[in-house]
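In response to reviewer comment 3 from the previous cycle, which asked for concrete evidence that the modeling workflow produces usable outputs, we include below a single protein chain processed end to end. The sequence was submitted unchanged, and the resulting structure tokens are shown without manual editing.
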Amino acid sequence: MGARKRKSAEERKEALKSIYFAKLNDVPTSPRKMRLVADMIRGMEVNKALSVLKFSTKEASGKMEKLLRSAISNWEQKTKQKAENGNLYVSGVYVDSARMLKRLRTAPQGRGYRIRKRSNHVTLFVDTKNTNDNQN
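The workflow returned the following structure tokens.
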């Protein structure tokens, strides 16, 4: 690895130390359905977001709740604080489309209809309100 690549890799690693996130890959739900759940909790305080996800009737909310708990745990490990002590909120949620399984379904008169089984990648960022206020 060259010096320029090594330097940029070290800068990227340093930037990741101050960002608290969790990522979930290849969730077998369509991105559109997952974005509905992501929009419910974006910008919310963490405890309120957990309760919203817990009582939501959507199937994707269970996976999002587990991901939020993972992001909180990552924040606790990096900062060595408890989530109850900090003023934690969901700073960003990104839902990207992942691989698509393509299937054929039989149709009348010898035809076949295409079925696309979609999946997605979810990235959830958590931050404290105090650090966000100091930057502005």
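The first helix runs from residue 3 to 17. We consider this sufficient to address the reviewer's concern, and the full set will be provided in the supplementary archive.
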